Structures are given as structure tokens and as C-alpha cells.
Amino acid sequence: MKLIITFLAALILFTTSPVRANAGPFKIHVSEFSVSGVSNNDNLKQTLQGILTSRLSPALVQLVEKPDQAEILVIGSYAQFAKMFSMDVLIKSKDSLIKVFEQGEGQEEVIPALGRLARKIDAELAKIAVPSPPTAPSLSPAASQVAVEEKYVLRADPSANGSPDSWSSPPLDGMFSSIAMGRTYSSGERELFVAGEQTIRAYLKGRELKLVAEITIPASGKILAIDTADLDKDGSAELYVTIIDRETASSRVYQFNGTAFAMIAQKLPWFFRGIGNDVSSRTIYAQEIENGGNYYGDVKELTKSDARFTAINPLKLPRSANIFNFNRLSGAPGKNYIVVLNEDGYLVIYSPEGSEVWKSSEKYGGSESFFNNEPRTHARSTRDLDRWMFLEQRIMQLKDGTLIVPRNEGTLGLGNIRAFDKHALFAFEWTGAVLKEKWHTRLSPGYLADYAFDQASVEVILLKAVRKTGFFNKGTTVISINKID
Fold it and tell me: Where does the pLDDT of residue 295 fall: very low under 50, low under 70, confident under 90, or very high at 90 and above?
């Protein structure tokens, strides 16, 4: 029976794969862009050509140097009007002529727009690459073994909004960087909280997404993260809001009654991170920062008694760990490891005794959320740029032990420049010796700002930036929900 299922899965994959039958990728020549409306045209022509070329899918594209060697020509133009720009591409083959374009505002949008443009070109090439009727593929023993072992898959791809196991919200006006899940009602509706730099919104997700309440914090503060937990076990979850205000932690705690927020604590001296799948059993960890923004002291567990909060039970963590980049990883009975997503993006596993036992060969994570770790007065006196401290993506362990780790991809420039425009989720299993990949989603457009997990419905809730903040726009964010099976 397993062999039949494996055979059918391989046959479906073969018949739907966007590659030409009995042929390799298209031979493609990408010309220099024609540029208008900006100075230094010659450099920009080659720069745009090079960036677009590097982002085309190697599964569909074989680059050639000369137009006469190509099956398809990609001809691009860039035009700038004040702060606005438009990039238009002509995809020219022997039998077709296709136009695609992207536009945006400001220099920081150019590279993400090129990434989106490359995905559009890939999509058009995939339409051209229609396979001939296939013959039944033969399965190697290795392929059969992989198919049998893959028991835990993400059924709904984060970009597949047409699937009954996936849902995507209408565009939300504004850039939101953090998400947390609240209560689930008997009707099946659930509370979702999202936060931007100064704003927190409460939504009710039923058949549609309904905005219920919105609050703001003072302009001098900046929200870094939000988490939910029921620390006093009274059946009502609290919202823990990590805030930095002029290089000092000034966090808050709210309760939400279904229609409005009520602040129960403010000016708390900690950053927060929630660990655990269920609101009722989740632990909120806390860590202080020094004046100026450096992490200070141990990560501790937060306790709540009425409106009083206390940090207790310090954790023994590696020196590279901080409140935002670690999780506890279950191993053999009674043996807990620590997993850290370090500053360079590598996953590192530490034993209960604190020694490094495993390190990934690939990089994961990637966040654009940050705070400064040097006072502005210091920057003015020394003329040094502030060093931005980037928060890391959540590392989440599910009840069955599966470890979920996101990966954002895009551009890492000099200094503080980060521009991510595509993402994927990876699932791992800790064997006690290595972190073994179980599955991963395909690379999808958009910067993954944050995510949450609904244990009851076994769904992952993604918060994705689909348009970054520009000179004349506040950015656009989308919430998507995908079933894990």
C-alpha cells in the first residue's frame, strides 16, 4: 500500500512539475537595463541586470552571454519619477511576447522589487514550460525510502491561498512586526494580536478578520515584540509587550476583555519572550538591559501575582544566548538541551552542562526588527554609527518535539542594512546527536516578520510584510494561516 501511495505521489509531482519534457532549463540572456530619470545611468544599468539575473530560478534558467545564443531574451527598463520608480521587463521568445512590471517608492524598495520581478519572470517561464504527456516514472529505492519517512508535512503552502487548509487576510495597512494568539471561543473564532512600532491591534478571526480594538504607546517608545500567556492561571490571558524607550526597557502588560485593552502594568524593566504552545501553559521569560541597550543578567521566568510581576529561577544559558534567540529543546527523559540561533544565523545545540554538541552548516532566521545598543549622545560625541541589535526569529518546539525554525532571505548590506523579501519554514527533529530536517516549505515571497502556532487546530499563523514602508506609504502586512498535517 505504501509503495502504491509513493508511486502515485511521484507520478503527480512528475505531471505537475513546471519543466519542459526531455529538456533542461531555458537558455536566457538578460540584457542591461535601459535607465531614465536618474544620474549615473551606466552603473545602474549593469547593477539592475546583475541583481535580477542572480534572483532567477536556476531550475528554469540557463544564462548565456550573447543574445544569439538564447531561446528567450529578458529586456528590462527602469524609470524614476520623483520618488516613484517603475521596472518593466519584456520576455521575448520565438513564439510569444510577455510583459511584467514592478514599481515602488524610494531606494530601499528597489532590491525587494527586483526579487518580486524575478518571481514573476519565473512564473511566466513555468507557464511556457508545459511538459509532454509523461510515462510512468520508475522509483529508486532511495526515493521510496524518502517518501515513506516523510510523515510530517506542511499540507498547505504559505502562498497557496486557494487550499481549504490555508487562509490569507486582506492587506493590513501598516508595517506590523509581531503577532500573538489569544483566546479561542466556542464558536471557533480566535483572538489575534498584531503590533507595529507604536500600535497594537486586536482582531477576531472567524470566517473573516474583524478589527476589534487598537491602542498606541507614546512616541518615544518602540514595541519590539508581543506574547500572550496566563501566568496567574485565572483563565484570562495577558498580553506581554516588550517596549524600549530611549534605550531603556519600559515594557507593559495588558488584558483584553474581548472589546478593549486594559493596562495592568507599565515601565517594567524587562524584555519578554513566551515559550510554549498553549496560552495556559506558556512560560514568559524576561531579561533586563543595561542603560544603552545591551542585554544584562540572566534570563529568568516571570511570575504574576495580581498586578505585581517578579523574575525568578535564572536559566543557565550559553554566552551567545539572549532573551530573543533561544529555546529549550527536549531530549532523552529528564535531559533538556538549549538551542540558540546565534548572531551569524547558525543553529547551535548545547548540552545541559553548557557545552556545544552540534552546529548547523546552513544559516536560518533573519529579522529586520531591531533596537539601538548605544545612546544617541554617544553616537554624536564619537561620530560612530549606532549598532543595531536585531531580534531573532522565534524558535518553536511543538508537542511532538518537532522544532520549527524560519528562514528569511534577501539582502544583507554593510552596517545596518537588511532587506528580506522571501521566506520559508523548516522543521527539525533532535535525535540526541544531530538536528535532522523533517520538511521545509518552498521559498515564498514576502518578509516573514513573526509567526504563532495554534496547538488545538495544528495551524501556523504567519505575519508577512508584502510591502515595506516607503516615503509615501506606511507599508502593507498580511496574516496567513496554514494547516500542518
Answer: very high
Query: pLDDT tens, 399-430?
Result: 999 999 999 998 775 556 788 999 999 999 99
Task: Report which of 118, 133, 143, 9 is spatially closest to residue 60, judged by C-alpha positions.
Answer: 118
Residue 478 is predicted with a pLDDT of 96
pLDDT at 413: 57
Spell out a b/e string for 173-207, using b for 16 or more CB atoms within 10 Å of the CB, else e: ebbbbbbbbbbeeeeeebbbbbbbbeebbbbbbee
Distances (CA, A) of 125 to 77, 120, 266, 423: 19, 9, 54, 21
pLDDT per residue as tens digits for the range 50-96: 889 888 887 788 888 888 888 899 999 998 887 788 899 999 988 78
Is residue 128 helix, strand or coil?
helix
What gap in Å lies between CA 311 and CA 315, rounded to an integer? 11
What CA–CA distance (Å, rounded) separates 422 from 412?
13
Q: Within a 10 A sphere around the Cβ of 22, how many other Cβ atoms?
A: 7
Nearest to 325 by CA among 340, 303, 305: 340
pTM: 0.68
Q: How far apart are CA 259 and CA 281, in angstroms?
A: 24
Name the 3-class secondary structure at 339: strand
Quick one: cell of 345? 544565523
Q: Which three cell numbers stand for residue 470?
A: 516607503
Burial call 362-373: b when 16+ CB within 10 Å, e when fewer: eebbbbbbbbbb
